[in-house]
Amino acid sequence: MPHHPSRRYHDRVARQYDAIYDDAYWHFHDQLTWHYLKPHLPRDLAQRCADLGCGTGKWGLKLLKSGLQTTFVDHSAAMIEQTRAKLADMPARARHATLLVADIVHMPEVESNQFAMVLAMGDPLSICSDPARAAAEMFRITAPGGIVIATADNKLAAIDHYFAAGDVASLEEFAKTSKTRWLTRDEREQFDLTTFTPQSLQKLFTRAGFEVLSIIGKPVLPVREYRDILADASIAERLLELELDLAKDATTAARAAHLQITARVPAGPVQG
């Protein structure tokens, strides 16, 4: 089987991955993410959680440290090995961790209806080969009443790239397909990215059977372009509060780089 470009890229960068995202912008982004995840953590520590497209385990490890049994899934074996290395430093917690190399569009190794909470952070919905199949798999493995929180690349944010390149023909094609490319120097590592609008992301999950609870943009404020402002901790805290306030208006999601959806599997039979 040929080495998929996405897997090739993530295998290569696995050891440097945490360093790539170690700056003020991503710390702000992580604070924002945890704020939205925390209210949905299962209260019953016997319930199971999953971190899909887990990378080096950032969010799954937080679930594990919260006392929750957690399954880590990534299509990159090198990423899973990075997570395994972190678990070696927390032996008591590691007993409650399961690590699996698998593609989120097809996870036959994962039993159905077992997770109270499923995370898919870092835009695996955009990276995977078939977002509809991935959403269907998320629905399958989540228990009735369970919560899925996933992120994806925002289609509207990608438009600026084509204007900067002066490439109207490619912009027209992108507008039709919502597909762009992950750009790296090695063409063997370039893979398709599926982008979403808030409406198309909602449709994806509704068609999979979910009840959509919310869609937010992350972040709404342009802190990535002006990250120096985050050097002042008091300013960063004020901006975080402002960000959270702006996100209460669902229409602000359209201007963010990433979209985050929170959805629930119906607790009872879906009415047709």
How would you describe what is shown here?
The structure is a single chain. The protein is of the alpha/beta class. The chain has a single domain (5-40, 50-264), classed as 3-Layer(aba) Sandwich (Rossmann fold). Helices cover 41% and strands 21% of the residues. It contains twelve helices and nine strands. The chain has helices at residues 5-13, 17-20, 24-37, 58-65, 77-87, 91-94, 124-127, 131-141, 155-165, 168-177, 198-208, 233-246; strands at 48-52, 69-74, 97-101, 115-120, 142-154, 179-181, 192-196, 211-218, 258-264. Strands 1, 2, 3, 4, 5, 6, 7, 8 and 9 form a nine-stranded mixed β-sheet that branches. Helix 4 links the parallel strand 1 and strand 2. The model has no long low-confidence stretch (mean pLDDT 91).
Please write out the topology.
Blueprint: H1 5-13, H2 17-20, H3 24-37, E1 48-52, H4 58-65, E2 69-74, H5 77-87, H6 91-94, E3 97-101, E4 115-120, H7 124-127, H8 131-141, E5 142-154, H9 155-165, H10 168-177, E6 179-181, E7 192-196, H11 198-208, E8 211-218, H12 233-246, E9 258-264
Parallel strand pairs: 1-2, 1-4, 2-3, 4-5, 5-7
Antiparallel strand pairs: 5-9, 6-7, 8-9
Helix pairs in contact: 9-10
Q: Tell me the name of the CATH class.
A: Alpha Beta
Major sheet attributes: 9 strands, mixed
Question: Judging by the overall fold, what is the CATH architecture?
Answer: 3-Layer(aba) Sandwich
Strand content: 15-25%
Number of helices: 12
Sum up the overall morphology in one term. globular
CATH superfamily: Vaccinia Virus protein VP39
The poorly predicted ranges are none
**How many domain modules?**
1
**Beta strand count:** 9
Spatial extent as radius of gyration: 18 Å
First and last CA, distance = 41 Å
| Share of residues in helices | 40-55%
Output the structural class.
alpha/beta
Order of helices and strands: HHHEHEHHEEHHEHHEEHEHE
User: What is the CATH topology classification name?
Assistant: Rossmann fold
Overall mean pLDDT stands at: 91
